[in-house]
Design goal:
Structural class: mainly beta
Distance between the termini: 44 Å
Number of strands: 7
Shape: globular
Largest sheet: 5 strands, mixed
Radius of gyration: 14 Å
Number of helices: 1
Oligomer: single chain
């Protein structure tokens, strides 16, 4: 669906998206990395489990929530990729810490 332009000479960085290492343009967002990886959705809603994909790509809609480097509920469109970043699709509700 989304691919870098073939004439692009932008340096790339390796990131892991749901267990697969891919190369994405340096400076891209984590949400863009998910789209480049070919995934159809980035999270499932907490109540109904409906699939959601990055939508606005500018931090307004929260449809791009993902687990990034072990931290859930990150707005992936607002996070710039860096080498070795681990991006995981978020499934269901985030666990609530109990004391």
């Amino acid at each position: 669906m989304f691919r870098p332009r073939p004439d692009s000479r932008t340096p790339t960085v390796p990131v892991e998206v749901d267990g697969c290492t891919i190369l994405v343009p340096d400076g891209a967002s984590a949400a863009a990395a998910v789209l480049i990886a070919g995934l159809r959705f980035i999270r499932e809603t907490a109540v109904s489990g409906s699939a959601r994909a990055p939508y606005c790509m500018m931090g307004v809609c929260f449809d791009c929530l993902a687990e990034i480097d072990g931290e859930p509920n990150r707005q992936s469109c607002m996070v710039t990729v860096r080498p070795g970043m681990r991006i995981r699709r978020q499934r269901g509700a985030r666990p609530i810490a109990t004391e």
